[in-house]
Amino acid sequence: MKAIAVQPGAGGPDVVSRPVPEPAPGEALVRIHRVGVDGTDYEVIEGTHGGVPDGDDRLVLGHEAVGVVEDPNGTGLEAGQYVVPTVRRPPPGVETNDYFERGDPDMAPEGEYVERGIVGAHGFMAEYVTSPAAYLVPIPDELAPWGFLVEPISITEKAIEHARASRSAFDWRPESALVLGTGALGLLTAAMFTETLGYERVYCLGRKDRPHPTIDIVERLGATYVDSRETPVDEVAAAYEPMDVVYEATGHATHAFESIDALAPNGVAALLGVPTDWTFEIDGGRLHRDLVLSNKALVGSVNSNRRHFEAAIDTLAALPDWLLESIVTGIYGLDEIERAFPSATAPAATTDGGSGVGPDDDTTIKTAVEFMPI
Amino acid sequence: MKAIAVQPGAGGPDVVSRPVPEPAPGEALVRIHRVGVDGTDYEVIEGTHGGVPDGDDRLVLGHEAVGVVEDPNGTGLEAGQYVVPTVRRPPPGVETNDYFERGDPDMAPEGEYVERGIVGAHGFMAEYVTSPAAYLVPIPDELAPWGFLVEPISITEKAIEHARASRSAFDWRPESALVLGTGALGLLTAAMFTETLGYERVYCLGRKDRPHPTIDIVERLGATYVDSRETPVDEVAAAYEPMDVVYEATGHATHAFESIDALAPNGVAALLGVPTDWTFEIDGGRLHRDLVLSNKALVGSVNSNRRHFEAAIDTLAALPDWLLESIVTGIYGLDEIERAFPSATAPAATTDGGSGVGPDDDTTIKTAVEFMPI
Asked: Of A36, A109, B158, B300, which residue has the fewest beta carbons closer than 10 angstroms?
């Protein structure tokens, strides 16, 4: 079968040939339909995040997948059923551990998991994959064409769940949200705030010039586009309003700390970006004091678990078609993967790229690779 | 009647004469038994925090009080009942607002509250005070001598409630806690971790030389004393262990950010100190990345509400007598208030003083003023 693999740090991804995997007991065989491309894939390609499985020199990419059950292999799944695989698995040679047992693999610390297509385990960019049935989340047929968006949406489901949990000790009534980043994840998250989470006022911060399709999407959602070159994060509260929630999806490290200034009293910033080391000055006394006297919180969030995937499928069903059609700017076959990975050979990412935000050329928002048409 | 008042920034507190207050409808008249002294009182005395009521040039101090109902005034309280007053009230001329209505006055932003004895309203260091009955929390007679510890304990009840809430979206099983600060609040909090919250391993960081009574208290609790001069906050994880909870009660601004390094994956730091402005360098990229990839959280917390006072009374009942007797190093009458406020005329506070941590001479841990013996 064909797969898309990469040697991290040694160039773009290639189509390779691999044997069709055989499902072990408890595993199903899944034929892959589509797999999304995101910022994490670029980090893996560049070798700045993740890594190949032990004993291998290449990694099969892909962690945002949707496919159809080809062989249930006695697992209780049904042949022909569409499924979205979750990403984390126990490390090699380990059947389970406390985090997986509790249904919280997303909370496992480094060393207690591998991530398919990211670190230590091959991904889903292949014609066929196998997976324990417990990690395959059924998705209705009519949503299957968009099923590769379930994983990124699940990332936000988790981050928002944790942000809300942090505010659950009092009667919190958030109305305003600021999304940092106008990549695919930022746009999907802005849409969740306006369409499914019921926020009254939503802002989306980026650094794009008008006219731009991402700004059009922000405004069609009824959200407000904030140009970070005119209004830096720490000036948003004064220029617009203090925010009940800030959702950081840029990976720009100063944003994590500037978010404290953007927050309203009792607000929470969910941090999702994965910056590299960067030393800079902050007025730590003022920020610390403000966190305390205004009851603010910062919550880091990575990955997601099966519950978040299930919630993401409900969210996907509730998002308008025009939005999905506008965000997904290209679906490419194996004969044109360079179009699915436009940034893999492009210059360095801009600062509003970063974790999960996706490619950074000027018109691409979200791409996917199609292994099998429906 | 006699009261203890201060002109912020203009010297130590004095005994002054005031008329006995008359309870308005809905208010009870309370005769004060004892009022604790803490770091916030020193900040008010120095004029760095809080402020006098409009139209006044002096503030009656005191926010950690216990008293006895002298005149229920038809409120449903009983004469002779011991009560602890909460601290926040609606601003002058405002009967209530959303935060007070919801039972969350501790979450009210600046301008939506006053704090008795701290900002905008006279405190409880007086022979008699009046208060709406809703802000008077009954305490069993046998606990009344220690009732002035209910307010500081309630501060920790709230901080821990918010910290736990932030971890409530997954199956969190914390075992280790690090308390930054060995003042009265730090010691009470360390005792809560060991005695009532069931933490298996508790550490308390300070900068005292052995032998010292606070170190003796830490060790009698079964906790480990960490000398910050040998092991800075960001080295505690390596030297001891990564912590599920960090509780910051020093007001030392770098601690808020160094706490991220002290945390275990999935850990939470509760921040309570109130530092002044201070600009310094941090490796914000590394800290941001660690918050995200290790699912860590920072939660600021100030003040407390009636529920936290009620929980604090239960906690007080569960703490061992030896601990309370060791922490409370002096109870002084109105004829020796300079002994109740030993730091008001002392040199500048050390860096492990700060919010709620109390006076900083070498043997005093916690003092209170007694207005009426039981």
From this structure: A109
